[in-house]
Structure formats: structure tokens, C-alpha cells
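Section 4.2 – Deliverable D4.2 (structural model, holo form)

The reporting period included a commitment to supply a predicted holo structure for the target in complex with X2X. Inputs used:
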Amino acid sequence: MVTVSRRGFSVGAGALAVSTFAIGKARAAEFTYKYANNLPISHPMNVRAQEAAAKIKEETGGRFELQVYPSSQLGSDTDTLGQIRSGAVDFFTLSGLILSTFVPAASINGVGFAFKDYDTVWKAMDGKLGEYVRAEIAKSRSIFAFDKIWDNGFRQITSSNKPIATPADLVNFKIRVPPSPLWTSMFKAFGSAPTSINFNEVYSALQSKVVDGQENPLAIVSTAKLYEVQSYCSLTNHMWDGFWFLANRRNWEALPENIRQVVTKNINAAAVAERADVVKLNDTVQADLTAKGMKFNTVDPTPFRDKLKSAGFYSEWKGKYGDTAWTMLEAAAGSLG
Ligand code: X2X
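Output (C-alpha cells):
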């Protein structure tokens, strides 16, 4: 695949940019920027990102082209985090919990059972807590996050061999977690055996039984076809997770102000539209997953929260984030300690 970029012609390593570049008479854009993410092309994130790319191209008179690279085509999450920092990639949507390997405060929205519903989530993430995390990201100087975080959803635990009904079912459970200290810490507090694996290797790790389970929102269980390698889904809602739309600061500042305004407007609008899509998908896809053979069970969260408390999980992470951030989290989520 030959892509025209502001850095000249380059031959992508088999990467297929889902872009709005029309074949034929369209002239090359003045600015061609790459946006990488780890989700399947069918996930609402990529649907809305492509829609935004088309609007941006039209509103900039063809001067700016956003090339969307889904499914970790440009590398795993940990690889791409290095690329967004160096500027090899211009934009990247990444869970704050994985970003926390670079910006520690970014994982705070993932504290177990912190958010009980979406009203609580958006009050925090579109409010003071989100503002605080974006300020911490900006301190890195190399990257910054757009205002509106994209929705991943409330995470559920899937398994190939058993339902998860009580905390005892998590003891010695071989579960995949994304590469993040908070994810590892939470499942170690449950007595599980967590293995950090980037998302682009999850399907094969489940298929080859390297791990017996994983946890993700239903929209991802569906669009990543994890139902093909998982039999049970336990509705734990143990964490809300989102994706910050990250930009490489130097590449962003190389753009004219009027183009930056068009990109900002359309990307934040796409995030808000994607949130509604994800809620709708997460609310409707369970019937489809059941029809595909997954067995669902609901879970009482109280024993799980009590287990995290007795294991010292909340006090450990309150100490890591510090009182200021923890107070902001509890202002939105209620007392966690
Ligand atoms: O890696 C995952 O499980 C995913 C897709 O949910 C994230 O990007 C955090």
C-alpha cells in the first residue's frame, strides 16, 4: 500500500489505511495524518472515526486527510504508545490504564467498581477528574488528549471453562489483562493469575488456551469475535474503561490553526456520537452473543468490592494516586475506601 504523506511517499507494511482518499482525480492532501487504534473496523470507534475523517476532508477543502488504521495494523498498543510519543503516528486512541505506563494518573478511571453507571462516568470524565487526567497527560510535553474521551464500556469477564459467580471463582483463574499495573494489581487482589497481553494477541491466546479468560465490554466481545473462543460471560461490570484520543504535540502544532479547529470539532463530536453507539451496542448485543452460544450470568458486585477492600487494593491505589486525585474520584464515584 502506497500512502501519500506530508513526509513523502512511503510504502505501508501491508497496512491498509481506511481513508477517504478517493481513487482517480482527487489530488493528494496537503496534510496526511495517521490515526491508529486497536479495535476491529466494525467497532463504533472506527465507524465514527471514518465519518469524522470524511467531514474533516470536506471542511478543509481536501487539505487535510485523516488515515484511519484499525486493528493494531501499525503495531501493538505498547508499540504504538512509543510511536505517538515519537511522532511516527499522529493520533492514537488508548485506554488510560495502558497509558498509565507513561502517565501514571491516567488509570484512575479504571479503579475497580468505582463508577456504577454512565451518569457517574461522564460527570467524572467530562468534569474535574477528566480535566485533571488531561493535564497530567499534557505535562508529558510529547502528547496531549482531546477533551472528549471515547467510550469502551463497562467490562465483563469471559471464560472458556466456567462462569464467574463469586470472588472464589477468580482464585488461580488464568486471565488475560491489558498491559497495565492497575489491571494486574486488581486481579492479583482477587487471587487470579493475570497475564499481560496486548489486544492484538488476545484471540490467539484464548484459542491456544494460554489463558482461560479475559475481560472486556460486550461490544468488543462481539466485534472482536471473542465468542468464538469463549463460552461464558459473567456480567461483573468491574470497571469502566475509555479511550483518550491522543495527539503527538509537535505534529499537531505543525498544522495551521484553522485546520486544527476543524479536526478538534469533528473528533470531539465523533467521540460523543461513539459513546451513544457503544451504549446501544452493549445493551443489545447480549441476545446475539447468547444466540452464538455464550452463557451469561449476572453478578452481585458487593462481595467483589469487599474482596478488593480486604486485599488492600483501594488503599494501595489511593496512596499511588495521592489525595487530590482520589478526592476527585470519590467526589464523582462516592466513597471507595
Ligand atoms: O485491550 C483491551 O482489552 C481493550 C481493547 O479493551 C483496550 O484497549 C483496553
